[in-house]
Specification:
globular, Rossmann fold, about 20% strand, Isochorismatase-like_hydrls, alpha/beta, hydrolase activity, 8 helices
């Protein structure tokens, strides 16, 4: 592990950028997310163009709520079909998908398998807020010789922030993409910087990556 972030060994983690959480007409949409999906898509496209790894981390809730967080279990079990496997709401936003698109392989994902969707691009299921908790993400990244992760996605106070801290705990360098994470706020950015994360806008991140090619 290098002492500083290495743009040649950087992977992108796109957290929970799913229809149910992002579309403005969804009952479960997070405020301010739909508006920045184009920025998220531009970041994903930039990583693809540089042939750097991309991992889409998704949530999937069984209809009975059995795999949901305790705070959401009763809501899901009551029949609210949020990111339910097999529904359109569970799918990754088209703006972040490769040109040929893809549908989630819900069965494989729930078994903990990484679903390849394009060259150097995968989807993985996460059972809780953070992308590293009880998943094979860290091992997957190590196998790709990744030492730095850039984080974009939905709802900073929950899943992106937890993912940032989990990545730091596993000795990955972290880049917080400040204009590609919804519901982010200055104090949160300061707190991420205080644990060593680098805070960059999407344009500055892509410039940093391109300069290393």
């Amino acid at each position: 592990m290098s002492e500083t972030p290495d743009p040649r060994r950087c992977a992108l983690l796109a957290v929970n950028v799913q229809n149910d959480f992002t579309r403005h007409n969804s009952l479960h949409a997070l405020p301010g997310t739909d508006e920045i999906v184009p920025v998220m898509g531009a970041v994903v496209d930039g990583f693809r163009a540089l042939r750097l790894p991309v991992v889409h981390m998704v949530r999937l809730y069984h209809a009975d709520g059995s795999n949901a967080e305790v705070t959401r279990r009763s809501l899901v079990a009551a029949g609210v079909p949020v990111v339910r496997p097999g529904t359109e709401g569970s799918e990754v936003r088209p703006e972040l998908q490769p040109p040929d698109g893809f549908l989630l392989d819900h069965e494989a994902l729930l078994e903990g398998k990484a679903q390849p969707v394009a060259p150097r691009e995968w989807v993985m299921y996460k059972p809780r807020w953070g992308a590293f908790y009880d998943t094979g993400l860290a091992a997957h990244l190590r196998a790709l010789d990744v030492d730095t992760v850039a984080v974009i996605g939905t709802n900073f106070p929950n899943c992106p922030r937890t993912t940032i801290y989990e990545a730091s705990e596993r000795d990955f360098h972290v880049v917080v993409v400040s204009d590609a994470i919804s519901r982010i706020y200055p104090r949160g950015l300061d707190e991420c910087a205080s644990i060593g994360a680098r805070v960059l806008t999407s344009d500055r991140l892509l410039d940093w990556l391109r300069a290393a090619r």
